[in-house]
Design a protein that fits this description.
Blueprint lengths: L10 H8 L5 E4 L7 H9 L6 E9 L4 E7 L2 E3 L1 H8 L4 E3 L2 H8 L17 E4 L8 E7 L2 E5 L2 H7 L2 E3 L2 E3 L1
Parallel strand pairs: 2-7, 3-6, 6-9
Antiparallel strand pairs: 1-8, 2-3, 2-5, 4-10, 7-8
Length: 163
């Protein structure tokens, strides 16, 4: 059997460990702008089960986290309506980095620098397992999706659009 590649700890894995969350490690070769589609393909997972962590902001520039299927986009109109905001838009990469403490492409919803409200596409919660960023580019962790609700207080929303 091949030796499992161990990845050093990140704030995300420290948080998961401190809450005794079982997770599997899935390192892969990071590709700039490859996104969830690339990681799913390399790791042999359905992109629907690879969850991307998006740092967005409302009309007052208040940051928020959106967890979305790897092969779906966020309808910012639907999201804004559901969370009671006038508008929602993606943060610029340098702003997202500052809010989360992670580099874009390696953003985990766990162990972020700032506490932010987290919204999760409702259909993700129906999946048995998901892959989600573990706090580094080229590193995903496999967890039960309910962990996002239990640890992050993620609010289910319906704002997915087909890519």
């Amino acid at each position: 059997m091949a030796k499992k590649e161990h990845v050093s700890e990140t704030p995300a894995t420290q948080l998961l460990k401190s809450h005794k969350v079982e997770y599997t490690e899935h390192p892969y070769e990071y590709l700039e702008h490859g996104g969830a589609q690339h990681s799913a393909q390399v790791l042999g997972w359905d992109p629907y089960t690879v969850v991307k962590t998006l740092i967005m902001q409302d009309q007052d520039a208040k940051p928020l986290v959106v967890l979305m299927h790897g092969n779906r986009k966020v309808s910012t109109k639907n999201l804004a309506r559901q969370i009671g905001a006038k508008s929602v838009e993606p943060c610029r990469p340098e702003v997202a980095n500052r809010h989360s403490g992670y580099l874009v492409g390696g953003t985990s919803p766990f162990g972020t620098r700032r506490e932010m409200p987290v919204y999760i596409e409702e259909t993700i919660l129906a999946l048995p397992r998901i892959l989600i960023n573990g706090g580094r580019r080229g590193y995903l962790v496999g967890i039960a999706p309910q962990v996002c609700v239990q640890l992050l207080g993620a609010t289910p929303v319906q704002c997915a659009l087909a890519e």
